[in-house]
């Protein structure tokens, strides 16, 4: 099964919310065939739960991350992931240092959305197995010099900030994850087509 790994620093705020959001968007599109989504942190607070503010902000967006347990990013996780999505440039760079062979499948979330939205539109009937070819297209576009918006590649870290900041970050992550699924797999079929 295809797997996607979301990465931040401690794996207690941004990446758990992103994991929940992307998993939800993919499940809406593909049901049981959806790619697996997990998360980790470059300095993961191993064994810690998501922060209460992250849990509440996610819950307000109908995402349940209350059972999340933080993990520290390992070389094996990188090797096993088909796609690695970093919340910030420093996380993408950390992955590159750990495993340079993963560069072609490692992006910041915003970077990959902008690449996907700049590529030829995915077929309406795109399925989870089309992820690999779409990532190859994104990597080729990035290698050709397409820069997207290098001044805005990061999801800010809300750790230590008030709940309102977590709410704003959860909304932002949700929006980017929704755009990512559309960019990679095309527009969702009409509801009547899903249930026919």
Describe this structure in words.
- The structure is a single chain.
- The chain is 47% helix and 10% strand.
- The C terminus is likely disordered.
- α4 links the parallel β3 and β4.
- It has one domain: 3-Layer(aba) Sandwich (Rossmann fold), CATH 3.40.50.
- A four-stranded parallel beta sheet has the order 2-1-3-4, with helices on both faces.
- The chain has 196 residues and is an alpha/beta fold.
Mean pLDDT: 92
Q: What string, H for helix and E for strand, traces the elements in order?
A: EHEHHEHEHHHH
Shape annotation:
globular
Oligomer: single chain
**What Rg is obtained from the alpha carbons, in whole angstroms?**
16 Å
The first-level CATH class is given as: Alpha Beta
The SS-based structural class is alpha/beta
Q: Would you identify the regions where 5 or more consecutive residues have pLDDT less than 50?
A: 192-196
């Amino acid at each position: 099964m295809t797997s996607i790994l979301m990465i931040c620093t401690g794996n207690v705020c941004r990446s758990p919310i992103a994991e929940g959001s992307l998993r939800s968007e993919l499940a809406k599109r593909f049901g049981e065939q959806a790619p697996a989504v997990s998360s980790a942190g470059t300095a993961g607070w191993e064994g810690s739960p998501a922060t209460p503010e992250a849990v509440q902000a996610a819950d307000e967006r109908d995402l349940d991350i209350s059972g999340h347990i933080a993990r520290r990013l390992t070389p094996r996780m990188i090797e096993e992931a088909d796609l690695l999505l970093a919340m910030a440039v420093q996380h993408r760079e950390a992955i590159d240092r750990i495993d340079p062979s993963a560069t072609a499948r490692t992006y910041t979330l915003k970077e990959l959305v902008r690449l996907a939205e700049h590529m030829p539109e995915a077929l309406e009937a795109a399925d989870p197995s089309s992820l690999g070819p779409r990532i190859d297209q994104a990597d080729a576009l990035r290698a050709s010099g397409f820069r997207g918006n290098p001044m805005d590649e990061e999801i800010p870290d809300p750790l230590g900030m008030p709940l309102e900041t977590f709410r704003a970050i959860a909304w932002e992550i949700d929006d980017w994850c929704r755009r990512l699924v559309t960019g990679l797999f095309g527009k969702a079929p009409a509801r009547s087509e899903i249930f026919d």
